[in-house]
Amino acid sequence: MTAIDGFWAVVPAGGAGTRLWPLSRAGAPKFLLDLTGTGRTLLQGTADRLRPLVGDRLVVVTGTRHASAVAAQLPGLPTTQLMAEPSPRDSMAAIGWAAAVLEARDPSAVVGSFAADHLIGDQVAFEDCVREAVEVARTGLLVTIGIEPTYAATGFGYIRAGSALPGRPTARAVEEFVEKPDASTAARYLAEGAYRWNAGMFVVRASVLLDLLHEWHPDLASGLRALAADQALLEQSWDGLTKIAIDNAIAEPAAAAGRVAVVPGTFAWDDIGDFASLAGLLPPPADGGPTVLGDPDLVVAVDSTGLVVPGSGRVVSVVGLDDVVVIDTGDALLVTTLERAQDVKAVVDALKAAGGSDLT
Amino acid sequence: MTAIDGFWAVVPAGGAGTRLWPLSRAGAPKFLLDLTGTGRTLLQGTADRLRPLVGDRLVVVTGTRHASAVAAQLPGLPTTQLMAEPSPRDSMAAIGWAAAVLEARDPSAVVGSFAADHLIGDQVAFEDCVREAVEVARTGLLVTIGIEPTYAATGFGYIRAGSALPGRPTARAVEEFVEKPDASTAARYLAEGAYRWNAGMFVVRASVLLDLLHEWHPDLASGLRALAADQALLEQSWDGLTKIAIDNAIAEPAAAAGRVAVVPGTFAWDDIGDFASLAGLLPPPADGGPTVLGDPDLVVAVDSTGLVVPGSGRVVSVVGLDDVVVIDTGDALLVTTLERAQDVKAVVDALKAAGGSDLT
After folding, report:
1. What CATH number labels A7-270?
2. What is the pTM of this model?
3. What is the ipTM score, two decimals?
4. B333 contacts: CB under 8 Å, gap ≥ 6
5. Any idea where the domains of chain A sit in the sequence?
6. Which of A4, A94, A284, B20 could staple B24 via S-S, CB 3.0–4.6 A?
7. How far apart are CA B176 and CA B254, in angstroms?
8. pLDDT digits (tens, 9 = 90+) for B278-327
């Protein structure tokens, strides 16, 4: 298979990954980390996954603080394709800025946005899905890739699919985007079968994206197109751009207007939202002890299960704890359970509240 | 109160405290550590406690490996009162060697043996108890101090007390020494009321101790007396001495012969056998979180109880774990529970089995 003509991948690389503290920090966010022990960071894995679809047509949008780290991790990335935001302005500005630059470069360009810190299980299914999404996008629709739910997840937003698009093998119209549900609602979504997980993957012609944006947020669309025309405006205009997520800015109103399609993704997908999620993604240990991310020779486990990350070079020993999470780094240690993995954020909040901490 | 004439304290300072790993190591054993956050190590606390009873008449018997650390911790200790064993030969050789040296120096000397790594709660009650024990010892008996049990402990040996000694306020004859009991036996001991915990404290005239030893282990008694007469024999003779605990060597047979008395100790006593024991000895935290030994500013606890020792300078965070034990040191980390504290030894065994570890 060859790369898709005129298709660009836009990779927004932001977010600290607070629930993966102390591995993930503001200064060393999740996307810069190798969380799977493969020797490639999540950002590198994302680029590797997209390369067969886009060739060298990859744009990364990140904060100025992380631009040099991104460049170091993706040495082949041209500097013109590494876009550094002066400050975080949420996903609409990040993706829209890249789309505006690409629209100016190639008016027929199709862009696909793919977060820098997600994992995907089946490369072939992913590529097939994106190819279908690009074809639908060329017809002028905003296309999202909706992951087939495998359990009643409460941690993701959902996409409700409607009728099939004429002449398309899998694509359907999107009826609406819905927020993260509670457990009973999630169970109903799973049972009904019309709902997909919203993985934040959008495929759309660059010009359609900006035209849709212009309908609901004309100032933001104009601002981004002006920025694309004159990069020198960046410092003075960036902080004045509307801070809004792409879902709220265009996906939801466009769905209500019947202009969004969904291509179902049947591949495994995970946003590695916390350590419980990470534990589930790593290969289970052969001897039945805890899953280890790192050097297993550094871990001594007795009657224990869960996740151990020996990240400081020290020996980590665990005795008599099931589903425990032990994250050992050079300057901070976290001990919790798979069940309480979501609450790691409370530690980061406490450290920030205590002030003066360079650990977050 | 003044020091007791002719009374010497002998402090055997040995044992690695394996169940307190990774705080306690072969190279940094329990008695050299400040486990209570008082600024004094257990050895120093033992010396402090004995000083009112013996003045400067304190002898420490330790391994050659730890002699310099002991000297550094007890700077006032004369070099002649710091006895360095070439190798561990168990408690009979250690205490007997000191007794033989003191017997040669003062034939009427009374010696009391007190482990270097125990804690005692009530100094006044302890002193009263030892004074009574010394008076009884002067009559020629081997006297042990038996701690009044406060719960059905399975981790200690017991002493069964018999009839009261004539004219003594509290001392009784010892009927027998018994091994660590199982839980139901321990409960029976507690209910019967005649049993005391064997804390390994023996008070006896030095000459009586060696004469008793001569009855059951004449070679060992002769060897120790010869060593006391000529220190130059140490290297050549030490490793040939019988390796036996003082309980087995003399306390048990002497009890059977009606020559042992017990003075009940009503003070709190603990041998800090594991981290559960240590947690119980430290002041509980004011805010209801885990007990912290060390700098509380290094601990961030959310919905957690237990014991945290932030011993490496790093931040230790714990989320959602009750009765957890987290021991953080510069080169090794232990995570377990109060309930499994006894099983820490399994980690040390595993590290030794893996070989080449300098962590134990």
Report:
1. 3.90.550.10
2. 0.89
3. 0.87
4. A314, A315, A316, A317, A326, A328, A333, B22, B326, B327
5. 7-270, 281-354
6. B20
7. 9
8. 999 998 888 889 999 999 999 999 999 999 999 999 999 999 999 999 99
